[in-house]
Amino acid sequence: MSPEPSHNPAIEVYGLEDRTFPPPVEVACDALVTGNELHEEAETDYEGFWARQAGDLLTWHREWDTILEWDLPYARWFVGGRLNAAENCVDRHVAAGQGDKVAFHWEGEPGDTRTLTYADLQIEVCRFANVLKGLGVTKGDRVAIYLPMIPELPVAMLACARLGAPHSVVFGGFSSESLAGRIDDAEAKVLVTADGGWRRGKAVPLKDNADVALATTPSIEHVVVVRRTGEDVAMTEGRDQWYHDLVEGASADCPAEPMDAEDLLYLLYTSGTTARPKGIMHTTGGYLTQVAFTHKYVFDLHAHTDVYWCAADIGWVTGHSYIVYGPLVNGATSVMYEGSPDHPGRDRWWDIIERYKVSILYTAPTAVRTFMKWGTAEPAAHDLSSLRVLGSVGEPINPEAWMWYRQHIGGGTCPVVDTWWQTETGAIMISPLPGATTTKPGSATFPLPGVAAEVVDDAGQTVTQGGGYLTLTRPWPSMLRGIYGDPERYQETYWSRFEGRYFAGDGARIDDDGYFWLLGRVDDVMNVSGHRVSTAEVESALVDHPGVAESAVVGAKDEVTGQAIVAFVTLKGEQEASDGLGQELRRHVATKIGPTARPKTVIFTDDLPKTRSGKIMRRLLRDVAEGRDLGDTTTLADPAVVEEIRRRATEAPSED
Ligand code: PRX
């Protein structure tokens, strides 16, 4: 057995978990997969396996010449094939007589609703594609999208895809500065935004944020603004136009651009170990193949009867792959919800599930833990019997949350599929299949058919039982094709730690039965409520404040959010530590990056513990942070903490 990696922060002690749950008869009797057949087929010929999926699940203008060209770390899938993503998501379903089928049951936070059939979607997408064309967008141009969870968001993405213009969706919770950085990196030509969106009964001022960003984004020529909240917003003459005005006069006829399988479909920025977010590149043919495959088989989708709801935000990869592309390629009927789970009451989700008879729910452990805290009365007061499969994504799900989810949401029978993947993988990689896999609470179980994952030790030796680093050992169709504008960083970040392997940044353990247990990040990336936040990014935002000399940020265990951000801060000479300054720093980070990155706790210290080479000893800080009762506050300069840090810094072995 190999040892656990020395700095691997296990988020939960999983070792004692021995409950197992075979697929329930009600699901297995009608499931798409009940045995090992897909795994076996894929192991015999994995390229052929993916090619069969590409052919079965997608419609191509031209078939590919070669399934895979692999020149590590660059993969090209379905080389020579041509297709259009929007056509695969929309037009072909209408052409097949499914135009009246509901694509989205959309619900706004205030309670307003819209139903979009596939035929409606086709009209909206074509019209907006013509609008973009009219604004000068052509194949290859980048379009930034900064919208709330309203139907115009998937419409705008698909309109871009129709023209072959890669989109870059920026989560509505990001700050002006984050938006500006992403627009500039991609040199986007057009920005699509809204006056605002609804969140907990309040209007989030997206256009105001965008206006601040637009002061430093020279590449933007036009801004299209959706009216959502009706708040007053400034419109800059010659640059800003209302979405409804533009769409009104636009034709609903817009031929789709046949794209190369390897043409860029979108960029999505994600945090890494440095302060600068990475523009993850996803292309067309391979990405669509794997998102459609996984959406169909991981959720055991019966497209004619299921009502599927992924409760993520489209601003994250989960929404790209499992609200937009996967479900639409598969012709599914989805629920899409704009707002927060506690508005107007804490039963909003259960009310939605009951009313739309949702049968598949896909959410994050942090949401499950929040519901656990709110108690069982809310879900118990609703009829949730339509549910048949429950999914989890974004962070390790602790066995208690898994059991609660299954019991109180899934009526004690629904299989729970814990799905491991990343922005970079594009699609689910490790997960049970609900009709075939015996699950264990807290384990993502096994790599999916066609996926090869291995755990290795520090030296890169394969670990067949025990802990280590999670790696992927061969290319997969939806893998990232690079980091936009930075090939060296791509090679360095993912392909240099272990020769010939993609290193995911996660620790994992394999148990005696070969089950994979994900243990969380082993690098300097935190996971807060399933959202990736880089320690370096938060540190850089903190030292940007004029009073801060130095900072070190760590993720400490948190019952609800998985990890909470704890910032250790040393101040410049003249600055006095105070509660007020702590609050100001927390606000400062939220303004620089976005509310997700706001430190939960700021701890002022005179010194930061460092190795002889000047590297901050994060592990020690994490221990200190986790040893404390963390409040949602500032911790004032506390001699005991400083003393503790000093004492431990002198005692701890060097991490050089
Ligand atoms: O640490 C893993 C964690 O989330 C990271 C990827 O974050 P992101 O790119 O934002 O994508 C999130 C949605 C796919 C991973 O490196 N993670 C994701 N899913 C799981 C998980 N950790 C444990 N179990 C999971 N099911």
Structure, briefly:
By secondary structure, this protein is α/β, with parallel strands linked by helices.
pLDDT < 50 runs, ≥5 residues: 1-14, 631-637, 652-656
CATH class of the largest domain equals Alpha Beta
Query: Helical region count?
Result: 20
As for the CATH topology of the largest domain, it is: Rossmann fold
Bound molecules: adenosine-5'-monophosphate-propyl ester
CA radius of gyration is 24 Å
Strand sequence of the main sheet, in spatial order? 5-4-17-16-18-19-20
Describe the structure.
The protein is an alpha/beta fold. It has three domains: 25-65 and 72-84 and 264-519, Rossmann fold; 118-257, 3-Layer(aba) Sandwich (Rossmann fold), CATH 3.40.50; 529-651, 2-Layer Sandwich (GMP Synthetase, Chain A, domain 3), CATH 3.30.300.30. Helix content is 32%, strand content 23%. It has a seven-stranded mixed beta sheet with strand order 5-4-17-16-18-19-20, sandwiched between helices. Helix 15 links the parallel strand 19 (389-393) and strand 20. It is globular. The two termini are 25 Å apart. Adenosine-5'-monophosphate-propyl ester is lined by residues 270, 317-318, 393-396, 418-423, 444, 504-506, 518, 520-521, 527, 532. The site of adenosine-5'-monophosphate-propyl ester has 22 residues, from helix 11, strand 20, strand 24 and strand 25.
